[in-house]
Design goal:
Mean pLDDT is 88; it is low at 256-261. 35% of the residues are buried. The strands form two sheets. The protein has a six-stranded mixed sheet with strand order 6-7-8-3-9-10, sandwiched between helices. Strands 2-1-4-5 form a four-stranded antiparallel sheet, covered by helices on one side. It has helices at residues 40-47, 70-77, 95-106, 111-124, 140-152, 170-187, 198-204, 222-226, 231-241, 248-260; strands at 2-11, 14-24, 29-33, 55-60, 63-64, 80-83, 158-162, 190-194, 207-212, 215-220. The chain has ten helices and ten strands. The longest helix is centred in the C-terminal third of the chain and has 18 residues, at 170-187. By secondary structure, it is an alpha/beta fold. The radius of gyration is 19 Å and the shape is globular.
């Protein structure tokens, strides 16, 4: 579904991506992990066509994103949802109008059809009853859920999540990740997620890619990265989870056991 080949990207002479090649299979969610400034969000923006690489290419469904123009590019973007770290809601619009925005801008649906679709999605994300509130009147978790609802309005085949739990307390953060997992099971979208909530994220993704200094250091399943012998990988994981290296495999198995239970 998504294929990146030899991506390079620099900002003011600083190389952020140094030849990234990565694939995301149809229907899976891939977690992008790694330290701050190692290129995770930059990769998401390249997949969304919001940035252009200095070299390399991104293919979605076999089409080179950077060669598409006009209606072809719009068609591609119509199948892609992006949940930004900040939520990126319009402060002057209500929850309802924020979620309805892409339908009003990009479709010819009637207001009644839009209302039915918006209320259905708000129900999915637990926001029925909040549709008349403005972003300043709702909590951080509700802002993220509103942004998630908006990103789902055009039934995307691909979902990109950039730190969807930033600024939220642990309970609300897990609620957002639970919601992403639930919606993925229903819609079967292909996803990429950047998050530092590794213990929960590892339960909802099929594979993990770790970026280090602008390159892909590791790609594999959550279990494989938890048992990796690479010293850089182990150091990052143990610090992120705040557990001793010897406990990694046991911790992973225990969490999967509780998840299945």
């Amino acid at each position: 579904m998504i294929k990146m080949e030899n991506l390079y990207k620099s900002f003011d002479g600083l190389e952020v991506l140094k030849g990234v090649s990565l694939q995301v299979e149809q229907g899976e969610i891939l977690a992008l992990i790694g330290g701050s400034g190692h290129g995770k969000t930059v990769i998401l923006k390249h997949v969304a066509g919001l940035m252009k690489p200095d070299r390399g290419r991104v293919d979605i469904n076999g089409k080179d994103v950077y060669r598409l123009r006009g209606s072809e590019l719009e068609e591609l973007r119509s199948h892609l949802g992006f949940l930004f770290q900040s939520g990126a809601l319009f402060s002057s619009l209500t929850v309802f109008d924020n979620v309805a925005f892409p339908l009003r801008e990009k479709t010819r649906l009637s207001e009644q059809e839009i209302r039915e679709k918006v209320l259905t999605v708000l129900e999915q994300v637990g926001l029925r009853g909040a549709e008349d509130k403005y972003p300043a009147q709702i909590s951080g978790g509700m802002i993220k859920r509103t942004a998630l609802a908006r990103s789902l309005m055009r039934n995307p085949e691909i979902m990109l999540f950039d730190e969807p739990t930033t600024g939220l307390d642990p309970v609300i953060a897990h609620t957002i990740l639970d919601l992403i997992q639930l919606i993925h099971k229903e819609l079967k979208f292909t996803g990429m997620i950047v998050s530092h909530e590794l213990s929960r994220v590892f339960q909802i993704v099929q594979r993990v890619a770790m970026l280090h200094e602008g390159v892909v250091l590791f790609v594999g399943t959550p279990e494989e990265i938890m048992t990796s012998g690479d010293p850089i990988v182990r150091q990052f994981i143990t610090e992120a989870l705040r557990v001793p290296p010897s406990a990694l495999k046991h911790l992973y198995q225990e969490e999967i056991f509780h998840q299945k239970g």
